[in-house]
Specification:
Helices cover 36% and strands 24% of the residues. The chain is of the alpha/beta class and 199 residues long. The chain has one domain: Rossmann fold (3-Layer(aba) Sandwich). The structure holds glycinamide ribonucleotide. Glycinamide ribonucleotide is lined by residues 7, 9-13, 86-87, 107-109, 120, 144, 170, 173.
């Protein structure tokens, strides 16, 4: 399976995925790490690993539709079969999703459907939940609203700050996301309606 990873920032999930691929746990090829931010640290790591990188900046396109069209064209040219969003902080249009049916996934640092969107960990602390976690889900054109593939749970502790909770969740993200992608590459994950099946 040809995997494209899209990342806007630090890229720690991308690193965990690359490591899992390098160690043979993910039986697929990472064909590209693509970012909308030329300064994303994710790109530095990918380059160090000899992975092809690309940057597509929104400012170079007239609007979101034009950007997404260019993104689809590039990913198709590269032969992407699975599009992995790893801290890619842009909402993708229905046209993008339709170009890769059931082949775009994302990780979110909360137990969806709770706390979608930005600052999920802050939202969880402010709400006062006692557990939170992360969710890997199919991407649809809504905000973190696609079918849920897998989740991991962490406790929220009384003295947690946004940073301490984010760090606890991130540890789980680094386990969960590579595992889901490995299952994907093994052809174990399928979707019917909103129900995700795993062989
Ligand atoms: C991760 O915590 C990821 O779940 C979150 O951004 C962080 C990226 O970190 N994504 C979202 O909030 C998407 N709604 P990373 O660049 O180190 O992987």
């Amino acid at each position: 399976m040809k995997i494209a990873i899209l990342a806007s920032g630090r890229g720690s999930n991308m690193q965990a995925i690359v490591r899992a691929q390098q160690s043979g746990k993910i039986k697929g090829e990472i064909i590209c790490v693509l970012s909308d931010k030329p300064t994303a640290a994710a790109l530095d790591f990918a380059r160090e690993q000899g992975i092809h990188t690309e940057v597509l900046m929104a400012a170079d396109y007239e609007n979101r539709a034009a950007y997404d069209k260019a993104l689809v064209a590039r990913l198709k040219e590269l032969g992407a079969e699975l599009v992995v969003l790893a801290g890619f902080m842009r909402l993708l249009s229905a046209d993008f999703i339709d170009a890769f049916p059931e082949r775009v996934i994302n990780i979110h640092p909360a137990l969806l459907p709770a706390f979608p969107g930005l600052h999920a960990q802050r939202q969880a602390l402010e709400y006062g939940v006692k557990v939170s976690g992360c969710t890997v889900h199919f991407v649809d054109s809504g905000m973190d609203s696609g079918a849920i593939i897998a989740q991991a749970v962490v406790p929220v502790l009384p003295d947690d700050t946004e940073d301490s909770l984010a760090a606890r969740i991130l540890e789980q993200e680094h386990q969960l996301y590579p595992r889901v992608i490995a299952d994907f590459a093994d052809g174990k994950i399928s979707l019917k309606g909103r129900t995700v099946y795993k062989d």
